[in-house]
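This part of the workshop introduces the protein records we will be handling. A record pairs a protein's sequence with a compact description of its fold. Comparing a sequence with its tokens is the quickest way to learn the format. To make this concrete, we reproduce a full record directly below:
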Amino acid sequence: MATAQRRAREKAEKRREILQAAKEVFFRKGVHRATMDDVAARAEVAKGTLYLYFQSKEEILAHLLLEGLSILLDRLEAAYAPQERLPAEERIRRLARAYLDFSRAYPDHFRLLMAFDRGRFQEKVPAELYQRIFEGSMRGLELVAKAMREGMEAGSFEVDDPWRVAGVLWAALHGVLVLMAHPLRRQMLSADLDSMFEATLDLFLQGIRAD
């Protein structure tokens, strides 16, 4: 029994080491340029050893995505502050700013979250892993939709479909983050990220207020 437990611990530790190496490689080279050869070299293991722990590069990416999602969801949950009595508009502002803060505090995780769904990712990872990523992503959007429903019930928002409107907000704010990541576009707009983000959020909230 002791031998089996030791082997299990050693296997779990090696798995963590490979994921850490993969994170460093993906963050440095980008998802699409990084290869399993790169990860093996960084982890100082034979390439064949990687496949004892992970079926593909996409499966490694899936675990890193779950790490990033966990960080983001913790921040969104804290921003929503279910234990506090807050106006729905304040909850939405806090959720939006938590998303902005995450993109700044964890830029590499943010880029992974933005890049993972290109190509045939779903087909190349175990269904259970993909489902966990999907459910985590849905949870973040559900917090925004929940705040929308609270605003509707309080009479402060005029919204026909909270889920769709939550998606509109996500699309708008994400668009600002992508747009303002380019120096030329910041120069064209004569604005910085914070001012554009707040202006977009203000315009959105103005559009859904009941008054």
Observations:
- The radius of gyration is 20 Å.
